[in-house]
Amino acid sequence: MRDVAVIGIGCTKFGELWDKSFRTLFIEAGEMAISDAGLSGDQIDEIFIGNMSAGRFVGQEHVGALIADYSGLATNNIPATRVEAACASGGLAFRQAFTSVASGMADIVVAAGAEKMNDVGTEETTDVLAAAADREWEGIAGVTFPGLYAMIARDYMNKYGLTREQLAAVAVKNHDNGLHNPIAQFPTKITIEGVMSSSLVADPIRLLDCSPVTDGAAAVILCPLERAHEFTDTPIQVLASTQASATIALHDRQDISTLDATVAAGNRAFKMSGLERSDIDFVEVHDCFTIAELCAIEDLGFCKKGEAGKLTEEGETARHGKIPVNTSGGLKSCGHPVGATGVKQIYEVVLQLRGEAGKRQIDAEIGMTHNVGGTGATVVCNILGRA
Amino acid sequence: MRDVAVIGIGCTKFGELWDKSFRTLFIEAGEMAISDAGLSGDQIDEIFIGNMSAGRFVGQEHVGALIADYSGLATNNIPATRVEAACASGGLAFRQAFTSVASGMADIVVAAGAEKMNDVGTEETTDVLAAAADREWEGIAGVTFPGLYAMIARDYMNKYGLTREQLAAVAVKNHDNGLHNPIAQFPTKITIEGVMSSSLVADPIRLLDCSPVTDGAAAVILCPLERAHEFTDTPIQVLASTQASATIALHDRQDISTLDATVAAGNRAFKMSGLERSDIDFVEVHDCFTIAELCAIEDLGFCKKGEAGKLTEEGETARHGKIPVNTSGGLKSCGHPVGATGVKQIYEVVLQLRGEAGKRQIDAEIGMTHNVGGTGATVVCNILGRA
After folding, report:
1. CATH number of the domain within which B58 lies
2. Looking at this predicted complex, what is its ipTM?
3. CB B103 within 8 A of CB A1
4. A69 in contact with B at a CB cutoff of 8 Å?
5. What is the C-alpha separation between B244 and B257, in angstroms, rounded?
6. Structural domain boundaries, residue B145
7. Tens digit of each residue's pLDDT (9 = 90 or more) over A91-146
8. Pair A373, B65: CB distance under 8 Å
9. pTM given for the model
């Protein structure tokens, strides 16, 4: 396999984007990435598109070809592939793009993700998202995504004595990072008290424990490392790209507050890169709910099981802590356009490694991403470093 | 890149399968392929799942993980990726599986496809399939898939003087092949007169010009060629696996009766394999409508533009003709579970190359597949040969 680098990145503003369509969002992010890499469109060999449910959100399947076409790339008849694993769809797009370049199938490959979630009503959105869980055994019983993560949170609190304040501290920290991120949907300062007095969604999860419903898109461009300097002075090498699955339904798991797919994908990423946990300077994890960030930190091996709440409360996951988590603001503050999130995580890691993260810049040479589908049936991990 | 071989195949009966669910169909095909390869499940490293629209047909996204889980493969946390390009979703699954093995990312990889289309009503099915075209410019205007292919057929007839009888001959030939295929949904003999007097769907397309709405699944297993003899005495080598895109909407094409993506994917397959058209002994093409088979034969380069009708009428695409087309019975007689079709084409080619095609067996060493998404915005081609 060939070494692979990221040479271009782009990301739209995340939010309720009433004046933009699904396809225009993709194109906006793609054009930013192409321009960032100093490429022309006809140099692109292949694209991978992460999207969860355009079929239900905007009545459109076949979105790989659609985006190739509306980006002007269909004139070269490039392969265009949509991949889907619910909220990990963006992560899959990146991993497939990596494999395509690493294998030698293609040289210049785009990985993009988008979701336009606000064009349908709240009830429909809730039902679409329930399609990420096991429809026949979870969705049909009426359980929603906040409901599933509430069960994880309750189990975790019972086992490890996590306090409500510690859970709230995750949201407060991520909003503090998002304050400095121009793409964030909610760049707003919040407090522990504010989280704890926000509306109850599914006990113990409250409104400010949840990532919002978001429109947005992100795109990155990969090429063989040996060609990266043709396009950029600051190539970022992909040191690992791994993926794992686990049971789709919560009730089939031995331990619902440990995500086996996170453990597996994380271990594989460290094995593939030859790195240790201590080599990682920062990590973007999948905080679709506050509890998810705590599980991720632990299941990736950055602290022992049950300790992530304390770590967060003590500021060790903040920008200048021991292991900064979600410097972007995470899904919590940036928003969570489900197909885009996995690619937006790469966007943030590349910005940080290039030193282009503005007021939220940290000192870092190696970063990691962690993208979850459903309640952990799919996990994608990536490790990136300065080339 | 490593050489890759197919070592196991499986396919369910295609039809209206009221007693089987989406997930059980996948598992049935997967178990047949695993058993065919003499593998145990824990030897599998990765799976790719082709599916167009389980989100709308059965309310389920995240189907890669779902199938890994229900196949018992999630216990090993293997990567499970769903790919989608409408009716070419199965073809994409095969190509991604090929890339995964060729790159060295994985050794034993499953490519599977399924669609459960009969669980919703006819009107809903028509609307779901319209999501393969450009929703904003075609679907919203009320055009259905038979409508789009009717425009192609009318254009083709005007340009090349194709007769209604020649078009009907495609259906008659494919049903004659399907008669001998145990998986076929409609293993029924039909006549030119029968096609021409069947109900008009969208002029000039009649009911017996259309592939049916179908439930079904297919699965194949790939591994590095150098390991293939561990699992089978009759490995089939993948000599090329290519993909191309084109404009999604018909109105954006220079010539609607030539599929540019077929031309591009076909040319790439011949280049990748180093073979000539004359080396191909038979081909499975995407005959979602009779006109689509004629376009495919020409756009792949097996005859000049405008000549495929005559070729068919003269019997040269029949089982013992010059270039047998759709020995399986094609989408027309076998049925067209959209996510499964691209994998079922591989299934047929492998059966023929192994000499296991029963009464429809032909003498062949090299076969080709051609799988189309929408009206040709995505095309996947594969060439396989005895190893």
Report:
1. 3.40.47.10
2. 0.97
3. yes
4. yes
5. 17
6. 128-211+239-386
7. 999 999 999 999 999 999 999 999 999 999 999 999 999 999 999 999 999 999 99
8. yes
9. 0.98
